[in-house]
Amino acid sequence: MGRWLTLLRTAPLSARVGMALIVLYALTAILAPWIAPYPEAEVVGPKYLPWAGPHWLGTDALGRDVLSRLIYGARNTVGIALLTTVLAFVIGTVGGLLAATLGGWFDMVASRVVDVLMAAPSLIFALLLLTITGTLVTALVLVIAVLDSTRVFRLSRAVAQGVLTMDYIEVARMRGEGLGWLIGREVLPNVTAPLIAEFGLRFCFFFLFISALSFLGLGLQPPTADWGSMVRESAKQIAFANFSSWKAASFGLAPLLPAGAIAMLTVAVNMVVDWVLRLSSGLKD
Amino acid sequence: MIAVHALPNAVAPIVTVVALNLAYLIVGVVLVEVVFVYPGLGQLLVDSVAKRDITFVQAACLIFAATYILLNLAADILGILSNSRLLHPR
After folding, report:
1. CB A159 within 8 A of CB A193
2. What's the whole-model pTM score?
3. For residue B18, is it within any domain?
4. Are A193 and A10 in contact (CB under 8 A)?
5. B57–A134: do the CB atoms touch at under 8 Å?
6. Is residue B12 part of a domain?
7. Most buried of the four, A56, A236, A241, A253, by CB within 10 Å?
8. How far B12 CA sits from the closest chain A CA (Å)?
9. Exposure of B59 by Cβ count < 10 A (0-12 exposed, 13-18 middle, 19+ buried)?
10. A interface residues, B as partner, C-beta within 8 Å
11. How many CB atoms lie within 10 A of CB A199?
12. Please, is B87 exposed, middle or buried when counting C-beta atoms within 10 Å of its C-beta (0-12, 13-18, 19+)?
């Protein structure tokens, strides 16, 4: 615990800003029902209200409160992206470490399966699979997790192969340790640093990917609030934006709110990942 | 000087990057066509996914995937052709 606190104290400013933003997003997501002034899917006023109280960010095309939808969007979009990343890492890391440690035919078969999955672009592949499964949230999470676990598989296999050439692995093998010990106690502790950095980067990609799918209308289905589909719904308003009056300006800025929320979280995660990468690579400045 | 000595050595990575970017852009066209409502293959693909027209989605995905793989293949071949050391494997 104390070690982590000293690490945090030496963090550069950019990493601190990133962490603060991530904590802010997490709190918003967790406390969404208590801080959002209105429910996410309820029509609470006339449509296209300008930015003034009690609807501080106006209302959308159906008269739903935009601020509440942004807050609930944090919960839906970020929650699903996080779930997908965790699932992809469980699948990819277990597969990659097993393939590296076992070697032989298992490595061969698993690597070729991953090659096949990586041959086609993932957006196209995801569209194909979503046609078969339909756009349920479980299907969405599973499809994206399986498709992108291939990249985690590649990384963990490559890093684990480097670790497996070490002397202590040979000593453990000669001691007669089983597969579980080898992977859990010898390899895993030595591959966590690059995997944690990759976790942050992957999270950003999943997050953008889910937003892109929602933007295409194939992600989370309405009336659930999420940032991708909010951009989609309000994108046409940009065409009518002019900044002569406050009402017109807030009309044109509406699509930028969810897009800005997406961009800011991605930047925040990247700032923290940068720091973790530098720590794990052992570079000191 | 540059054309004779530097260019042949620099062609391989350039070709790879160009081909990979082209492949990426061809997939990115799905999003672009939906944003700007161009009536193209990407827009058609997204509409058919929404309608769950599986045969059409299969065909469109095949076309996209084939383009992607062919571009990667072309990059590899051009990369090998540009480097005479790779032309004669030991």
Report:
1. no
2. 0.80
3. no
4. no
5. no
6. no
7. A253
8. 21
9. middle
10. 119-121, 123-125, 127-128, 130-132, 134, 212, 215-218, 235
11. 19
12. exposed
Tell me the C-alpha distance between B44 and B29, whole Å.
Answer: 11
Question: How far apart (Å, rounded) are the C-alpha atoms in residues A128 and A111?
Answer: 22
Inter-chain CB proximity B54 and A124 less than 8 Å = no
User: Which residue segment(s) compose the domain that B65 sits in?
Assistant: 37-80
Per the listing, tokens 């084939």 go with B66
Residue B74 counted as domain residue: yes
Strand, helix or coil for residue A55? strand
Instruction: Determine how many CB atoms are found less than 10 A away from the CB of residue A195.
Output: 21
| pLDDT 10s digits, A152-205 | 998 999 888 888 888 888 888 888 888 888 888 888 888 887 888 888 888 888
Angstrom distance (rounded) from CA B54 to CA A144: 19
Residue length of chain A? 285
Tokens of B43: 């827009």
- Return the structure tokens found at A20: 């603060």
Q: Is B42 domain-assigned? A: yes
Structural domain count, chain B: 1
Amino acid at A274: D
Task: Give the separation between CA A47 and CA B8, rounded to whole angstroms.
Answer: 62
**Per residue in A72-83, pLDDT tens?**
888 888 888 889
